[in-house]
From TrEMBL:
Residues 77-286 form the Smf/DprA SLOG domain. Residues 306-357 form the DprA winged helix domain. Belongs to the DprA/Smf family. It comes from Caloranaerobacter azorensis DSM 13643. It comes from the Bacteria. This is DNA processing protein. It holds the Pfam family DNA_processg_A.
């Protein structure tokens, strides 16, 4: 048993990440814990008698091998904090999960992601907004992260899939269980277009106290969190608070001041969350998103059927906006010709004019 194996073994006993860290500090290494006698384990003063008995009872190589076989039979993959493919953003948060279980795949492009969360008992307006924002963001290559719950979460995942984008669902239970059961088809679709993730071992039920811990992973995987609808006591506000603590951006969609489902989002805006009316309000706040969209836009433009001089101008302004005189100088084209081509490119929707005869590529 190496340190990685022992870490997975501890997680399989449903020992949380904080306690695992304390155990490592107490023993000096995971190997020392594995080799510890029953008396030594029973003298640990910061875990319950129940967990002491569990450590003693299941400190067995056959138990561990059987558990790994069960994980493999469930078609899940285990990633630990020791592994190179552990998600970079998640690793940087306070108390990251030491072990995560995955169905589907995580890709490097998932680092550019936005979480969309909100009420389970969502209104028609909330469901519409969640699907609309998820669809539009996913169409730009941004991964959508949510929690697979009823209401807003479901619509966020569905919106990403409609746009043929990627989405990640973070569970508050073991990866061998589907909750809610009505989302079975969605559970399967997400695996083919993203990932299902949980830190909970096999068999753990979706108990209420699991979800606040789950929420830190939703925000931890993301560059920002968009709250669509939430009551004053919604778990989505916990996700927003965790996002702030993790240094993430928090966005909220305003709602009817008389609606109980908008009190939480309106309060977030009052307390400083950015009010969002379209996806540009999100994109302009996050540099990585802006860079992703710029790169995507440049690739799109490069595939258009443009003339030689049009390509010169597009190449000239692809990095940042430029004045028409600067464009003329750098391309070697006369100012009249530049202005004529810029007008044509504006009509094609490829460039837009800013104040002061400055031009840039359109975002999308």
């Amino acid at each position: 048993m190496n340190s990685r194996d022992i870490l997975i073994w501890l997680n399989s006993l449903n020992i949380n990440s904080n306690t695992i860290e304390k155990l490592e500090e107490y023993f000096g290494s995971f190997y020392s814990l594995w080799e510890a006698s029953t008396d030594v384990i029973n003298n640990i003063n910061f875990i319950s008698e129940y967990f002491k008995s569990v450590l003693v009872k299941y400190k067995d190589i056959h138990y561990y091998e059987d558990y790994i076989n069960r994980v493999q039979k469930s078609r899940a993959k285990i990633i630990t904090i020791f592994d190179d493919d552990y998600p970079k953003h998640l690793k940087s948060i306070y108390n990251p999960p030491k072990v995560i279980y995955i169905k589907g795949s995580l890709e490097s492009k998932d680092e550019v992601s936005i979480a969309i969360v909100g009420a389970r008992k969502a209104t028609a307006y909330g469901k519409w907004a969640a699907e609309k924002f998820a669809k539009e963001l996913a169409s730009l290559g941004i991964t959508i992260v949510s929690g697979l719950a009823y209401g807003i979460d479901t619509k966020a995942h569905e919106g990403a899939l409609i746009a043929e984008g990627r989405t990640i669902a973070v569970l508050g239970n073991g990866i061998d269980l589907i909750y809610p059961k009505t989302n079975k088809a969605l559970f399967e679709k997400i695996q083919n277009n993203g990932a299902i993730i949980t830190e909970y071992p096999l068999g753990v039920q979706p108990l209420p106290y699991n979800f606040p811990m789950r929420n830190r992973i939703i925000s931890g995987l993301s560059l920002g969190v968009l709250v669509v609808e939430a009551s004053k006591k919604s778990g989505s506000l916990i996700t927003a608070q965790m996002a702030l603590e993790q240094g993430r951006e928090v966005f909220a969609i305003p709602g009817n001041i008389n609606s109980v489902y908008s009190k939480g989002t309106n309060l977030l805006i009052k307390d400083g969350a950015k009010l969002v009316m379209d996806i540009n309000d999100i994109i302009e706040e996050i540099t990585l998103l802006k860079n992703r969209i710029k790169t995507k836009r440049i690739k799109e433009v490069s595939h258009l059927n443009l003339g030689k001089d049009e390509i010169k101008i597009v190449e000239c302004i692809k990095e940042y906006p430029k004045h028409c005189d600067e464009i003329s100088f750098q391309t070697g084209l006369g100012i009249k010709e530049v202005n004529s081509i810029l007008t044509i490119l504006e009509l094609k929707g490829i460039v837009r004019q800013l104040p002061g005869k400055t031009f840039q590529l359109t975002d999308f």
